[in-house]
Structure formats: structure tokens, C-alpha cells
Design brief:
Blueprint (H helix, E strand, L loop, with lengths): L1 E10 L12 E6 L5 E6 L3 E6 L4 E7 L6 E8 L4 E6 L3 E5 L10 E4 L4 E7 L2 E7 L4 E3 H6 L13 E10 L2 E10 L2 E8 L4 E7 L7 E9 L2 E8 L3 E8 L8 E4 L2 E5 L1 E2 L2 E12 L2 E9 L6 E8 L4 E7 L9 E2 L3 E6 L2 E8 L5 H4 L21 H17 L6 H24 L5 H12 L7 H18 L6 H10 L10 H8 L2 H10 L5 H13 L2 H4 L15 H6 L12 H5 L23 H12 L4 H8 L4 H20 L13 H21 L1 H26 L1 H13 L14
Parallel strand pairs: 16-20
Antiparallel strand pairs: 1-29, 2-3, 3-4, 4-5, 6-7, 7-8, 8-9, 10-11, 11-12, 13-14, 14-15, 15-16, 17-18, 18-19, 19-21, 22-23, 23-24, 24-25, 25-26, 27-28, 28-29
Helix pairs in contact: 3-4, 4-5, 7-9, 9-14, 10-14, 10-15, 15-17, 16-17, 16-18
Length: 721
């Protein structure tokens, strides 16, 4: 088993954009395998596409209301189901926006949890132990719900499908005793069991799965152990309350260290994942995510989580989800067939030795050297079609190549920038080197760590070439842009914004703020790619104040300005905004890179509100300049490579006005800008309105032209009514 790539799904703080300051209530599977539903401990539910790390929808109940159980997806109807204030049921679809206008039903009893099933109706579990399928509940929302457990408190529940029959299992607690209930719907039978007590220890977390008519219940106890309980579905005993005996499955200790688990998940029949604090004698405890082999009682892998967690762990589609600091983190994992060789880390199979599944951030430099040696050796051995002579020749070269890659990681610690750059170029230029991407994945963190600890070390040229030539992402090197911001490396930031598909909105905002704050004089001395602006910004005209009178789009904004009701006496300096770029070409190119980066309005808007007013006005002036420039041409597109599109310009303009409209209305220097922007937009609306009026006539002309065959030369008079 191995922990692979990790990335951030969303922020959780007050400025994270999802309103998750109170924490996560639960994470549920979405309508397909790449979607998850996130419910916070408040008013909001958000649907995420995990691979894109972007929200697809966000719904909130009104102020004063609170979502009290996790939102789930009804896989039968592709609808979402939620309960707020314990008794109010809401059902909606993707296209719904306002939850006040969706289906609502007030129930007669308080709901504990709703469980969705892949091929069946959701099950609604009430706090009194009563259970209904959603369709039966909707037939009569005020129907009476039985109360089986008036003195007990539900601690956990889960639902399964055994064949076509839904099965619900839940655990309750009363005065230190724990009880297990199993509800079978076909026969409408509720079985109650008492869990065998463990001396001076209580269960902290439960999970279960069903196979061959037997429910396997796993319990994580406070004595650092996981116990297994087998519950057969076919019960013939008439005894009202049977005692469930348990057996020790796993002791969470290794080499004198003990894992104080808080939550866990079953990965397959031989592996479990446990989230908790790893404690050793005389050492401070460290929060970790771990994978254990229950068959051989071994710790397979672990990842330290220095920023802390909430103790919650979810597992869907070979991905772990958990909070880490102020973000919700996703880690991909891989589990191989359980064998003794794999359990002790000696498995040599080529599939399990893939270097891309190593956790580079937790390996030491010496381990990285060994890993690279092992990977290259395995890769060469897998090429079964080579001749004996060529195979011997290749194997003979393995130590040199492996030591070069491994030695480089050690050299990064103390060599100069020039020396490191030269060795990196030699390493990556080897056409036959296997797993170039994986090697880059371990080299970049080492470079960034050196940059953080040694201010004089910064291999800027190599980093730029690496991003330009390789398909990298922000999640592969999350600290790279932070280092570039600290170094004010405009060129590197520009390339990252243009090439990384998964940049967080917080980082996009940080780049925008830096670009707007730096003077044009400083930027003139920096290396910035001007391909996106050189075709439409006339630098000479911008300096000399030459006015361009060409109008291609059928109207002139100045002809419309005198018809505006609001008149400002100080508009003269702003009249040139549409003709001359308010920023230098270097800053314009950097701002264009920001316009190209992907973002979610929900996540970006809170950050944009923190943009200083003067910088917001400058950015809006530049966006207006781009808008006017785009509208001069018939095809409403700017020339040049990577130039912003009209849609990007409009989206950012609307977003900026949403974030700063009140401030801009109050700023004297912004009033003229808003007025001229209003006039320009109104002029365009009038122009397109006039075009719409003659649309029918133009279509009629087209029809007549198709019907009549004209000679090489003819004069026709057509009357337009």
C-alpha cells in the first residue's frame, strides 16, 4: 500500500470561499464517481468535481436555519436531499439556486441521518430509531415515526444493499453501554444486539461492510486497537438482546510508537487506513494518516500532517479526504495484493515498484537514492524483448544513472545555483531515462526547500525551462509560486499562471495584487513575455498621446456621451482610457496571465474584496481598455498569442465591480471611469439593438439571393419595408 499524490480540494477558513469556518459536517459521494458533496456545520452544501478541484454548485439555507444532517444525492432521481433544523426536508436539482423555492416537507420526528444507496431509494434514519425509505416518507410527511431508543443516543449508522434488499445498521450508547441495531426492510425486522464491553476502553469510531450475508463490523477503541465483530443476517434465535463478542483485528503500535486513532476506513479485505496521533516515548505526538496491513499486522505507510486535522476521514474512489489545517486535502492511495513480501516492503513486482507512487515529501535523501536505483533496475528488467548482450549493457549502466539522479538530490543541499542547473539539465536531457515526470516530482520539492532556507540560491532559468517543457501542475509543486512571489519573479509567475490548470484562487489573487502594486518603471527592467499585448498596445502612441479615430464597429462612444443623464465636470483625463493603455506593456502582459487563469467566482470574490481601492480602480481601467479594444473589431477578439477573450474580460470586470462597487462609487477618481464605462456599454447595446431590427431584412435578402441567378453584372433595387 502507498500514499500517492496529494492536493487541496478547497479552503475551510472564513476566507476559503465555502463558508466552512465552523468545520465540515460530512462528505458524501456525488452523482458520479468524480463528484463529492461537502456539507459544512452551518448553512451550506457544495458539490465539487474532485479532478478539477472546483465547485460545480453551492446551496445555502436562510440565515437562522442550520443543516443538521449531511446532504446526500438520490441516485435514482439525480436530486439532492437535505434536512435543516432537524425536521425540515428539502429536495432540489442541479439547476435550482434558491433553496427557499424548492420542495419542502416538515416531518413529525427529528432526523439523524439520510443514507443514499446506488440502486435504491435513500433511507431516512430518525433519532428515535425509526427508519423509512424516502418515497414512503414523502407520501405522508407527517406520519407517525416509532421511537425504539428513547434513552439511547445514536453514535453512527451505515446502509448497504444485500442483493436487492436494503440493510441499515446503527450503533447507540446509553450509560457507557453500546448497542447495535440492524434493520431489514423486506421483512420489516429490527434486530438489537449489545456490544461486548472492553475494560476501561470505549469505541471511538465504527465502520462496516457486508459480504455473503454476514456484516463485518469494525470498531476503533480508545485502547489503540481495532476489533472485529461478525453479525450474520440470518438470525434464528428468539433471544431479544444478544451479546456480540469481538476479536482483536489490529493493535496500532509499531517500534515503540502508538497511534491514537480518531477515525478509520476499510480499504480492502487486508488494509485499513487510520487517522490519528502517533506517539513515541519522550517525543511530541504527531498527527498522521496511516495505512495498515491487518493480515500481517504491519504499518505499510504513513504521512505526517503537521497542520493538524479535525479527526475526520472519508474514503471514496481510492481517495482519502480529510481536513489539514485550513484546507480540505485529498490524497490518492494505492493498495496491492496482500503478501508477506509487500507487507515488509520487499516486493519487487514492477507494478508495485513504480516510482510515481512514492511519497517524495516523506522520504529522506538516502531513501530517494535507493528508490531511484530500484526503479531504474526494475524498468530495465521488465524489457523482456532485449537481447542478452544489450540487457547486460543496460544493467551495467544502472548504477551510474541512478547515482546521478540520487546524488543530485544530495547536491542540491550545498551546490551553487549554476552547478545545480547544469546537473539538472544533464539529467533531464537523457532521452532513455525512465519516469522523467516522477524524477521531476522529487527534484522540485528539494529545489524549493533549498530556496526557502538559502536566499542566495534560486535557479530561475532552470525552473522557467522546466515549466515550459514539462506538463506540471500547481499540486505537484505547491510551494513554487509562493517562492516566486517572495522573489518577485514576474517571468516565472507569468508562465505558471498560463500553464498551471489548478492554481488556487488565493494564489491568483496574490499574483494580481503584486502585479498591480509594482511600478511600470520596475517592470521595464524585468523579463516578461509580451506576446499577449504586442499586437494591440501601441507603446509609442501611449507615450506620445496620439489619438486613433478609426471606428470599425459602426458607432462612436463619444457621440453617445452627451445623452447620459449624469454629467461629471472632471471627465477629460478619463476620456483617453479607451484609446491608451493605462498600464505599461509589461504590466499588461502580467495582468493578461491573471485573466487566463482558471478560477471559481465563489472562491475568488472574498479575496478580491481585500484588493486596495486604488489598485482595483487601475485594474478596472485596464479591463475597460481591453473591452473597448475588443469591441473595435468585428470579431470582438484581440490579436496576439494568449490574448484575453471578450468573455474573460467581461467576467473579470463583473467580478471586480461586484467586489468593489460601493467603494468605487464613493471614490472621486472612479466616478468618471464608471460613467464612461456605462456610456460605452449603453452605446453597444443600442448598436446591437439596431442590428436586431434589420435582422429580418438581411435574412430576406439572403433568401432572395439564393433564389435568383444573376448575371456577371446587374443592378437591382430592393425596397426594405
Amino acid at each position: 500500500a502507498a500514499l500517492c499524490e496529494a492536493f487541496t480540494l478547497c479552503g475551510l477558513g472564513p476566507s476559503g470561499g465555502v463558508g466552512l469556518g465552523a468545520g465540515v459536517l460530512a462528505l458524501e459521494p456525488g452523482p458520479d464517481a468524480d463528484h463529492v458533496l461537502l456539507t459544512d456545520r452551518g448553512r451550506t452544501a457544495t458539490l465539487f468535481k474532485v479532478s478539477d478541484q472546483k465547485p460545480l454548485g453551492c446551496w445555502s439555507v436562510k440565515h437562522g436555519q442550520m443543516i443538521t444532517c449531511p446532504v446526500v444525492c438520490n441516485f435514482e432521481t439525480h436530486e439532492y436531499v437535505a434536512v435543516h433544523d432537524d425536521k425540515v426536508l428539502r429536495i432540489w436539482k442541479d439547476e435550482d439556486v434558491n433553496l427557499d423555492k424548492v420542495f419542502k416537507a416538515t416531518l413529525s420526528a427529528e432526523v439523524y441521518r439520510i443514507h443514499s444507496l446506488p440502486h435504491g431509494e435513500p433511507l431516512v434514519l430518525f433519532k428515535g430509531g425509526g427508519v423509512r425509505t424516502l418515497d414512503v416518507l414523502l407520501e405522508a410527511p407527517q406520519q407517525e415515526i416509532e421511537n425504539f431508543i428513547s434513552d439511547e443516543v445514536i453514535k453512527w449508522s451505515e446502509a448497504f444493499l444485500e442483493g436487492q434488499e436494503p440493510i441499515l445498521i446503527f450503533a447507540t450508547e446509553k450509560d457507557g453501554d453500546y448497542f447495535i441495531y440492524i434493520q431489514k426492510f423486506k421483512l420489516n425486522i429490527l434486530h438489537k444486539y449489545k456490544l461486548e464491553q472492553e475494560e476501561s476502553s470505549n469505541p471511538l469510531s465504527f465502520t462496516a461492510y457486508i459480504k455473503n450475508q454476514i456484516i463485518t463490523l469494525l470498531c476503533l477503541y480508545s485502547n489503540d486497537s481495532i476489533y472485529k465483530v461478525l453479525i450474520p443476517l440470518q438470525q434464528h434465535s428468539e433471544e431479544e438482546e444478544q451479546i456480540l463478542s469481538k476479536s482483536l483485528l489490529l493493535k496500532l503500535s509499531v517500534s515503540g510508537s502508538v497511534l491514537k486513532g480518531t477515525s478509520f476506513a476499510v480499504l480492502d479485505k487486508d488494509h485499513v487506513a487510520v487517522l490519528g496521533s502517533l506517539t513515541a516515548c519522550g517525543e511530541e505526538s504527531k498527527e498522521c494518516l496511516t495505512i495498515w496491513n491487518t493480515k500481517f499486522q504491519t504499518l505499510q505507510t504513513s504521512k505526517e500532517l503537521p497542520l493538524g486535522t479535525s479527526g475526520q476521514l472519508w474514503c471514496y474512489g481510492e481517495k482519502f479526504f480529510f481536513t489539514h489545517g485550513k484546507v480540505l486535502t485529498v490524497i490518492i492511495y494505492k493498495c496491492e495484493t496482500s503478501s508477506l513480501a509487500a507487507a515488509v516492503g520487499k516486493l519487487k513486482d514492477s507494478q508495485t515498484s513504480d516510482v510515481s507512487f512514492l511519497n517524495w515529501n516523506t522520504l529522506s535523501d538516502e531513501e530517494l537514492v535507493v528508490s531511484l536505483q530500484s526503479q531504474q533496475s526494475v524498468t530495465l528488467k521488465s524489457e523482456s524483448k532485449m537481447t542478452l548482450r544489450s540487457r547486460r549493457s543496460s544493467v551495467a549502466k544502472v548504477p551510474t544513472d541512478a547515482l546521478t539522479a540520487g546524488q543530485l538530490l544530495l547536491d542540491i543541499k550545498d551546490s551553487s545555483s549554476a552547478a545545480v542547473e547544469e546537473k539538472l539539465k544533464q539529467l533531464l536531457s537523457k532521452a532513455q531515462m525512465p519516469d522523467v515526470q516522477a524524477t521531476i516530482g522529487c527534484v522540485i520539492p528539494a529545489l524549493i526547500n533549498r530556496c526557502k532556507t538559502d536566499p542566495s540560491f534560486y535557479p530561475q532559468n532552470f525552473l522557467v525551462q522546466l515549466i515550459q517543457k514539462q506538463e506540471l501542475s500547481y499540486s505537484l509543486c505547491p510551494d513554487l509560486m509562493a517562492v516566486a512571489l517572495e522573489k518577485k519573479d514576474m517571468h516565472l509567475l507569468q508562465i505558471c499562471l498560463q500553464r498551471f490548470p489548478d492554481i488556487p484562487e488565493e494564489m491568483t489573487y496574490a499574483c494580481l495584487k503584486l502585479f498591480l502594486s509594482i511600478s511600470d518603471d520596475y517592470l521595464e527592467r524585468t523579463d516578461v513575455n509580451l506576446d499577449s499585448v504586442i499586437s494591440y498596445i501601441d507603446i509609442e502612441s501611449n507615450n506620445k498621446g496620439v489619438k486613433n479615430e478609426m471606428v470599425e464597429n459602426g458607432f462612436n462612444t463619444e457621440l453617445e456621451e452627451d445623452s447620459c443623464d449624469t454629467i461629471f465636470t472632471k471627465e477629460t483625463p478619463l476620456k483617453n482610457d479607451g484609446e491608451f493603455c493605462p498600464v505599461g506593456p509589461q504590466k499588461a502582459a502580467l495582468l493578461n496571465a491573471v485573466l487566463h487563469s482558471a478560477y471559481s467566482e465563489t472562491f475568488l470574490l472574498p479575496h478580491l474584496k481585500d484588493l486596495p481601492a486604488q489598485q482595483a480602480v487601475l485594474f478596472l481601467r485596464y479591463l475597460r481598455y481591453l473591452y473597448v479594444k475588443s469591441s473595435e473589431k468585428i470579431n470582438t477578439s484581440l490579436p496576439g498569442a494568449l490574448s484575453p477573450t471578450i468573455n474573460q474580460i467581461m467576467d473579470w470586470m463583473c467580478l471586480l465591480l461586484d467586489a468593489h462597487f460601493t467603494v468605487m462609487v464613493m471614490l472621486p477618481e472612479a466616478k468618471g471611469l464608471l460613467s464612461s464605462l456605462h456610456k460605452f456599454v449603453r452605446a453597444q447595446v443600442r448598436f446591437y439593438s439596431e442590428l436586431n431590427k434589420i435582422e429580418g431584412s438581411l435574412q430576406e435578402l439572403q433568401r432572395l439571393k439564393c433564389q435568383k441567378e444573376t448575371q456577371a453584372y446587374s443592378i437591382e433595387v430592393l425596397e426594405l419595408i
